[in-house]
Amino acid sequence: PLAGRCALITGSTAGIGLDTAEALGAMGADLVLNGFGEPEALAAICASLSERHSVRVMHNAADASKPEQVQALVAAAQAHGRGRLDILVNNAGATHEAPIESFPVEAWDFQLALNISAPFHAIRSALPGMRAQGWGRIVNVASVHGLVGVPYRVGYVAAKHALVGMTKVVALETAGTAITCNAVCPGIVATERVLLNHRRQAAETGQDIADVQRQVMSTRQPSGNYIRSADVAAAIAYLCGPHAGEVRGIALPIDGAWSAL
Ligand code: NAD
What CATH number corresponds to the domain at position 233? Predict the structure, then answer.
């Protein structure tokens, strides 16, 4: 259903972003990957996606926390799409933990730069082309922390709440067009990075990983299950697909009932 369309996914060399590239590639979209990694590993990822889905794939190493690099990334994606950038998934993100009194100012600035300013600059750059071609899909990967707070992550929580707010504004400004803008709000996703953290926590405390999982989930994710990264990607793919044209401005929780607490 996305054949002939071009998708840019920021932060897509690992985790939810890579699974989203997989899902959109499987629907036939040409892909622009972004994020960090070893050149050989990145080339292998691109080649594999391209071969398995018969789509054109490129990687661009732009640092999404830098506005001018985001603008250049969007321009590179438009060139890859031979003038069209149909789908923009703002996925690159990171978090920092500290109480607000000692939250480093540089960490605050970086949290805002990556988690909210990067999507702003990407949308601002991509929207004129989407309007000209008369079709577009924008999905912002927020978090359950775009809907509810948590202590010690002031930068992340503030930025993800802002991202949910920006999603609504863009949806309203594009409501009379075939361009949509939505957000997804995952809970704790079983990405390599998250599992590594939980394994490290288990090793440090002498527990096994199931105990750590139970502990982490008990105060937060009522289902007790990790969210599967591929399931978040499938939700993003739905929002980018032909059946979601009138889904506008939502922030979809995929959080094992966390936001229902
Ligand atoms: P990850 O850490 O597994 O992967 C991050 C990707 O972003 C990698 O490809 C990395 O190279 C890239 N990246 C990092 N910094 C970048 C930068 N400055 N510029 C460009 N690319 C950069 O990430 P993830 O856990 O899959 O998270 C993806 C998104 O989902 C983030 O916005 C995150 O806040 C959100 N999220 C994740 C979880 C979770 O439990 N993993 C839960 C809720 C929301």
Answer: 3.40.50.720
